[in-house]
Amino acid sequence: MRLGLALGYWGRGPDPQHLELAREAERLGYHSVWTAESWGSDAFTPLTWLAAHTSRIRLGTAVAQMAARTPTATAMQALTLDHLSGGRMMLGLGLSGPQVVEGWYGRPFPKSPLTATREYVEVIRQVLGRAAPVRLDGRYHAHPYTGPDATGLGKPLKSIVHPLRADLPVLLGAEGPKNIAQTVRIADGWLPLYWSPSRTELYRAALADARDGFMVAPMAQARVCADVAEGLKPVKAMLGFYIGGMGHAARNFHADLMGRFGYEAEARRVQELFLAGRRAEAIDAVPDAFADEISLVGPRERIAERLELWRRGPITDLLVLAPDPETLRVLAELTG
């Protein structure tokens, strides 16, 4: 099980520790470093900055939002960074949800998310393969565009730049069972948002047909600390925000996922409190047990014991959200 460092996205501004953490992760032998985006900082610019200040560590987006760019624009950014970094780029993509797609990007959320995702990946594969001009008779990502307001002058084009790698890895963030099953068919890896090493049966059927080399790379908050309850507070804060605020009361993929973990009533309660403006109560309502099973928090000995559970499943890469160099070092020692 390889280690990756997940840096997420910015809050009020750039985190001055991110570059230090990425360099330390590279020094410790971490395989990869990952950036993300929501509705503020983008994923590619910080990753390019990290690429310029490192030399070996792989570079991934976990995740770049599909609604933020056309598939060809995403392919352009990926192939450009792959060249600049010497072939270190891994492209992680996510569809996001209606709240973000329609509220932030001002675009309709696809009625068929599976089809939209499949077409998006297909266009990127064509760009990176560069075997011919991009053509797709798609419902969401037609190339050339042939909609009712088209000029009819669109021309199939092939990238001017020769991609460094036609097989640049494409990974997908997927939560629902059908989405995960499609990810296994069309992508090079899966980026689970939450992973419980004690509930691997939830993923067994979807991953049954995964080919050799398929990446399973979940994120987990990690922190070496004496007080487990104190260490879980950031995990609960993250869960409260995602479950309560990252979606509509009637359609929240994160809340649905928590429900599949056996916490359906608790997830709805978190939603109710968060949407009522009672954010502190919403965070408190996140069960400690749920926060604990998807993270690695506590003294070194406790983390070592729990890490063995993560090793037993199908995980190939553990992407840790770690706030300090000590935690990075301890995890490197425990997995080395």
From TrEMBL:
Keywords assigned: Oxidoreductase
A Pfam family of this chain: Bac_luciferase
Keyword Oxidoreductase set for record: yes
Transmembrane segments: none
Keyword field contains Lyase: no
Domain Luciferase-like: 17-313
InterPro entries: F420-G6PD/mer, F420_OxRdatse_Rv3520c_pred, Luciferase-like_dom, Luciferase-like_sf
Full protein name: LLM class F420-dependent oxidoreductase
